[in-house]
Amino acid sequence: MPALLELSGLSKTFDGIRVLHDVTFSVGPGEILGLIGENGSGKSTLIKILSGYHPADGGARVVLGGRDVTHSLGGGPARTGMAFIHQDLALVPSMTVLENLRIARFTGWRVRWRQERDRVRRHLSQVGLDVHPDTRVGDLSVTEKALVAVARGLADIEEGAERGHRLLVLDEPTAYLPHDGVLRLFGVLRGLAADGASCVFVSHRLDEVRDLCDRVAVLRGGELVAVVDAAGSTERGLLELMLGRSAESLYPAVEEPAGAALLTVEGLRGGAVDDLSFTARPGEIIGFAGLPGSGYDEVPYLVTGAVPSGGRIVLDGAELPPLTPRSAIARGLALLPADRARSGAAPNLTVRENLTLPTLSRFTRLRWIVRRGRERRVAAEQSERFDISPRRPESALRYLSGGNQQKVMLAKWLLGAPKVLALHEPTQGVDVGAKREIFAQLSAAAASGAVVLMSTVEHEDLAHLCARVHVLRAGRCVRIIEKPELTPRRLAEAVYAIAVSGPSP
Amino acid sequence: MKTVERYAVLVVWALVVAFFAWRSDTFAATSTVQLILSTQTVILIATLGVTFSLAVQEFDLSVGSVVGFGGCLLAVLDGREGWAPGPAIAVTLLVCALFGAINAALSVLAGVPSIIVTLGTGTLLAGITLGVTESKVVTGISVKTVQFMTSPFLFGIPAPFYCGLVLCLVAWFVLQHTPLGRRMIFIAENREVARLAGLRVNLIRAGALVVTATLSGLAGVVLAGTNSAANPQSGAYYLLPAFAAAFLGSTTIVPGRFNAWGAFVAVYFLTTGITGLQYLGYAGWPEQVFYGGSLVAAVTLSHLAGHRRLPRFA
Which Pfam families does its entry note (chain B) (predicted)? Predict the structure, then answer.
């Protein structure tokens, strides 16, 4: 059977720097091909060439269903038979499902709403989504939104004349999905593949890639280094292909903490958290896990006053009054939020300015004059220490890759030497190298006597780093797993088993 | 590239000066410099005022009304009521600052966008100004005040210009060299990031609105003092030029940020062009064409040159 998509000789040069070099591979009908690589390996460039955002260098050929589409890339899904689903989904939350699917495709002088609704229902049923077409997208769960985006991709392709040529390109669609959402999305994708549609699936998560894909293409430094069968691969093997060397352990050795409790939290309330108590000794990394809605992901915000909370927080033997971000920082509690764009970083300002924001008053003379020389020096030191690349503290933060931006965020808070560092998804959308660096810094912070609190869906990370993990359900801690028993598998079992045995919604 | 962008307006300014010096026999003279520097202090001060609130991403549309109101209040206190100049000016500024505090309370505490709040309060204040003055020009400002505002102080230029210059220095220092200035930039960029970094976001936003109103009041004081009378309708004329100069200023010296010397350069660049056109015998419509044209050209070019150098407004 001929391949559905054939890429050959794909190269791309920016300002004389070759970011993609002679990439050649194919995707068969009904095949799900994984595409992996570190940040900067050329993954995004490859996707952007396919979507027509960048033109490829000369000599490239893209054949889709036997037709050479090299020069009509970017002509839209209907013409090329390719639909793209990006991480941010590109849906308009204030509009309905129907409008999101059909807004650019209404034809004729009036909208035939009933016909449109029927059409949209059909597309929704393809992805197994049972919502009314007039539901506002903003009212859907993240998982449902992702499925709406997939449905829109399919609908767009169907507009085209040549049915049967269907290729979905999914660019890290799972980054914001809860675990059950990932499973549901994968189910839908497998169904579509069985029906003859092909997928290119880009992800940072090697376990997902192995689970979902038939074959995996690995990019490193702009070159395609291997295309391997997913079934015969191991995560370690894929990691080695990505990094080009045998993978060092991602996780640093964690030291045994000692001493009396530094942080005691009793009866914490707020958001979905109902009643949570825990203590932490200096040097301990404490994890919080659970299903979406259990409140595990709100703990960092509640402890640091970013979201108003109730309950008792005792730090260093003194009970804290109700906190605001300002008073929390003054007392040594720092927060690294998950949503970098909305609440973490100012991308248009420089790396230096971002780094020194919370600690700016330490870089002053007579309280009122910024000592820029000293600020520059510390920014340079911090860039060095956290291996932030490019090492140019005066460039705007937005020019850095996601992983390096995240390192800047962590460096910014550690500059204040916090007693308690609360993190929410600290490695979301971050490549393996940056991940290792972030973990090393977290463990160094803990080793110097800080308490680290971490809420994440990455059970693997929690299992390796934490002294213990609190598993939440309905705002309460239902299980604490301590060091010797702490494995990703036990953790996942605790998170999901509880959901199974509980009353079904 | 960066340097070109920084000084582009200065270079164009020099070209404009050279052009008028070539075309007009009388343009290149000390008296022209004195004229340009003496007459634009009101706009300079109002522009600095606008710059402070724009720097934290707040739009204060009541600036024009406050200029008009400040002038009339000074005229009433100093002229009609016969107060001494000092107390009259101090009370005028205080009342304008209070007005700014009302803007701040409504937009920061109540959370209504400042552009809407100040549109309303500005219109309200303009109406009150008309009512109190019965829509008539208030005259009788004391000779002492008028003399201070108009008689040459240094190099044949009256004192208010130097006052504006000092304000520029202060604004430059605050915006560029203090932690406060840096924090203002972060508040403009992303309020939530600033809040989570422990900044007193609301206090700083409120403070900026109060400073804007106070400086607008000062601009009104200078306006009335210079003219020895206050026209209750004059304020409206100052709103758009102040915004135009502030935006033009944000494309130069420190491109992409509202900055004091940028504002200074913008005000006097625009004035130079208009004065030059007057020397060539054009008056009326060419002024506005030059004003508007320069603003659009500078802002567009700077937007195209830099990737995103313009302050954005949600």
Answer: BPD_transp_2 (PF02653)
**Which member of A326, A343, A349 has the closest CB to residue B198?**
A326
- What's the pLDDT score for residue A161? 46
Same domain, A216 and A310: no
Could you state, in order of their start, the residue ranges of all structural domains in chain B? 2-305
Is A307 within the bounds of a domain? yes
C-beta atoms of A357 and B197 within 8 A: yes
Number of domains in chain A: 2
Which of B:232-291 have CB within 8 Å of A?
Answer: 256
Residues 177-206 (B) with a CB less than 8 A from some CB of A: 177-180, 182-183, 185-186, 189-190, 192-200
- Torsion angle of C-alpha atoms A102, A106, A110, A116, degrees rounded to 10: -40
Rg of chain A over all Cα atoms, to the nearest angstrom:
24
Tell me which residue of A21, A463, A14, A53 sits closest to A251, measured CA to CA: A463
Q: Quick one: pLDDT at residue B314?
A: 39
CB atoms B183 and A369 under 8 Å? no
Return the percentage of chain B with pLDDT > 90, whole number: 40
For the four alpha carbons of A219, A225, A227 and A228, in that order, the dihedral sign comes to negative
Q: Which residue from B minimizes the CA distance to A361?
A: B179
Inform me whether the pLDDT recorded for B307 exceeds 90: no
Beta strands in A1-69 (DSSP E): 5-14, 17-27, 32-36, 61-64, 67-68
Residues A176 and A51 in one domain: yes
Residue A398 counted as domain residue: no
Question: Quick one: pLDDT at residue B19?
Answer: 86
For B2-305, CATH gives 1.10.3470
A348 vs B177, B200, B308: nearest CB:
B308
Q: What integer is the mean pLDDT of B121-129?
A: 93
- Verify that A276 and A336 share a domain, yes or no: yes
Are A324 and A426 members of one domain? yes
Q: Let me know whether A120 and A196 are in one domain.
A: yes
Domain ranges, residue A494: 263-344+418-501
Same domain, A424 and A495: yes
Do the strands B138-139 and A476-482 form a parallel or antiparallel pair, or are they unpaired? unpaired
Mean pLDDT taken over chain B: 87
State whether residue A17 is helix, strand or coil.
Answer: strand
Q: What is the pLDDT of residue A222?
A: 84
Give contacts of A360 with chain B, Cβ < 8 Å.
179, 182-183
Shared domain check, A318 and A187: no
What is the Cα A61 distance to its own chain's centre?
Answer: 32
Q: Are A339 and A308 a contacting pair, CB within 8 Å? A: no
Contact B178 A368 (CB under 8 A): yes
Mean pLDDT by 10 residues, chain A (505 residues): 83 76 89 83 84 84 83 73 80 86 74 82 83 86 84 76 73 77 86 87 83 90 87 82 66 74 90 90 91 86 92 90 92 90 86 90 85 90 86 84 88 92 88 85 90 89 90 87 83 65 39
- Report yes or no for ipTM above 0.85: no
Do A277 and A223 belong together in one domain? no
pLDDT value, residue A126: 79
Residue B303: C-alpha distances to residues B4, B14, B229 (Å)? 14, 22, 41
How does strand A310-315 pair with strand A318-319?
antiparallel
Segment holding A218, helix H or strand E? strand A215-220
**Rg of chain B on CA atoms, in Å:** 19
Looking at residue A337, the DSSP 8-state letter turns out to be: -
pLDDT of the residue at A301: 94
Residue A360 lies in a domain: no
Q: What is the CATH number of the domain that holds A475?
A: 3.40.50.300
CB-based contact A343 B308, cutoff 8 Å: no
Residue A469 lies in a domain: yes
Q: Using the beta-carbon criterion (under 8 Å), do B197 and A361 form an inter-chain contact?
A: no
Q: What is the DSSP string of B133-181?
A: HTTS-EE---HHHHHHHHSEEETTEEHHHHHHHHHHHHHHHHHHHSHHH
